[in-house]
Design goal:
Strand content: 35-45%
CATH class: Mainly Beta
Shape: globular
Helix content: 10-25%
Number of helices: 4
Number of domains: 1
Structural class: alpha+beta
Number of strands: 7
Strand order of the largest sheet: 1-2-3-6-5-4
Largest sheet: 6 strands, antiparallel, barrel
CATH topology: Pnp Oxidase, Chain A
Order of helices and strands: HHEEEHEEHEE
CATH superfamily: Electron Transport, Fmn-binding Protein, Chain A
Radius of gyration: 16 Å
Length: 158
Amino acid sequence: MKSWFEFSLEEPELAELGKQMLLQARSHVGLAFLATLRKDGAPRLHPISLVFAQGRLFVFIPPHSPKCADLRRDGRYALQAFPPPDNEQGEEFYLSGAAVCIQEPATRQAVVGETGIHVEPGEVMFELLVERAMYTHLVAPGTPAERPSHRIWPTTHG
């Protein structure tokens, strides 16, 4: 698993495409769908705000939220960027990996200070580590030759 910064060093173009898709013209805070695993192993899907700061990708989640309980128990996640408003190219961005609970007050303060976001005192901070990333767009959209094109990191995945 890699931090967003490590991922962006290995695959800078894909990381930039992903960041643009996740932020959609915002400076630090993006929107996405977060998939987690319930206690019974079934998937759960949630809209979520995410934060880019210090070269890392974070989420802040209320402590009594089902997604917080899911991530505390089993940190595996999948994240899908909201589609852009005018998405004629069929763009999509997906991440998967593990969420790690960050408990250091200094890290929390640094993220809030860098981004200027409002975080409730009890919210739980997780860093989303990246195991897999995929950007998809349509080639020849709207024609009989339309097909998806994928850019995947890492190029091999078990």
